[in-house]
Backbone:
């Protein structure tokens, strides 16, 4: 049995933290390049910094929240004491209900 995927809160927190970091780094790159291209010529750097400070944390939070919802697979596995395909389908059902 793979113990790196135990249904404990630390695995869920680790996954949410990794997703938050990925969203923050990816958002900084995305919004930095996007605002560099769309800002006026004399204010490109300040426009990029402003866009990164405003938008990258939002994207990071969205990544973290989605991962927290999707990590309910671990909770489902711990509750049912089984690892079968029904856990994934029930998790997707919960994510679609909560996420919309």
Residues:
């Amino acid at each position: 049995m793979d113990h790196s995927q135990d249904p404990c809160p630390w695995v869920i927190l680790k996954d949410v933290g990794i997703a938050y970091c990925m969203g923050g780094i990816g958002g900084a790159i995305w919004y930095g390049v996007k605002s560099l291209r769309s800002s006026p010529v004399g204010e490109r750097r300040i426009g990029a910094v402003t866009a990164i400070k405003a938008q990258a944390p939002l994207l990071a939070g969205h990544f973290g929240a989605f991962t927290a919802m999707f990590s309910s697979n671990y909770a489902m596995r711990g509750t049912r004491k089984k690892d079968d395909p029904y856990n994934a389908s029930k998790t997707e059902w919960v994510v679609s209900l909560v996420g919309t």
User: Anything to note?
Assistant: The mean pLDDT is 85. The chain is about 80% helix and 0% strand. The first helix runs from residue 9 to 38.
